[in-house]
Every structure is written in structure tokens, then in C-alpha cells.
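Re: the 225-residue chain
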Amino acid sequence: MTLRFKSALLIVAALALTTLAQLKPFIKSEDRPVLNEDGGQAFIIETNRGPLVPSGSDRKGTISQPEQYSIFIGSDWTSPLQQREAQLQSLLANVSNEAELTALQQSGIKNRFGPTASEERPDISARSFSDMDLQRLLAAMLDDGTLARPTNRTIYVVFLDSGFESKLGSLVARKHYVAYHSIFRAAGADVRYVVVPFESDPTAASQIALRAFVAAAVRPARLAK
């Protein structure tokens, strides 16, 4: 084996190790980062199974008193899905499983009964709903006063009815993720949000939304300064 060939092998091995080191954070946790349409970062929840609190959570970064503001998009929420809203718009308050209550307490979430609010948007009918569509909607609702300006405790939770196909960059709901959370800047504030595509089973739907909300609270997305 020539010296030049050995050197080439060493370079390839070094590049491979560098690539693995760069990928490591992406496979470390339950909610992993992906790119949205404008090159920003979102964090997907890939399944409704597993621990409620993501592994590796840093308690110091937890939003200890998260406030849920729910936005129900689609006309189904005004009739066939209306009974679900009470359960979905107070995700933390409806936790009753002892193991989950303990996990929440250990994660640094100190108050499960913070203020909540909700808004229905039956007027939106587009079938395809991308992350950029969602950001534009939230920004418009902040601009016209439909949404109050968020604080550092606010997490908007957007529930889609069955008429919407959720997309996140090149990813699509139910194939690549069951929910996701992210952040963007609007109205002079950091806007944290969770997107929950439609799930037909009510129990699974509540669990997916809860997991996504908890992930957004215990490991909140942050904008680069």
C-alpha cells in the first residue's frame, strides 16, 4: 500500500468521523431538529410513544410556567370536533397519570395550571398547510390583535382538522412526524409554537399534543442572537 493511498484513507476516515460528530445531536433526543421552508429550524415529534419528557432535557432551560394558547384551524372544530377542545386546550391540567406527573415535576415545570386561551379559525380552508403558512397566519393574528403579544411563557398550539395536509419543508405529517415545535420572530417578540396535525383517535391526539407541548416547554427553541 503506497504512502499516498494510506494518506487518502486517513483523510476519508477523518471526514467520516467529523460527519458522525456533526450528526450526533440530531439523533440524540425524541424531538430532533429539521429545516423548514426558509432554512430555519423546527423540532419534530416522530411518535406518540416513549417517555413524556424527552431524554437529555436541561432543567435550567425549562419554561417552568408555560402558558398554552390554542388555535383550532378548520371548520370541523365548530361542530364534530368541538367536544375535543376542552381536553386539548388545557393539556397540562388534564394530566392524571402518576408517572407523567412525576416526570413533569422533575423536568422543571412548576405549574400545570397556568393561564390558557383558545381561538377558532374555521375560515381557513386551504388543504395544504406548510410551516411558512403557519408562521404567516400567526404573524397576521398578532398584527391585527387577534393574538396578544407573547411573553417568554407563551406557547401557541395549533391544531389542524382533518381537511389539512401539514408540511414541514420536504416532510409531511403522519409519514415523517406526528407534531413539531419551532420559533420565529414577529411583532417584536419571539413566537414559540407547536403544530399538531389531525389524529382521528382522540386519546392518541391528546397524547401527541401533550408530548409536543412538553417538548417545547422543557427544551424550548431559541433564536440565534
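The helical segments are 3-23, 82-88, 98-107, 131-143, 202-218.
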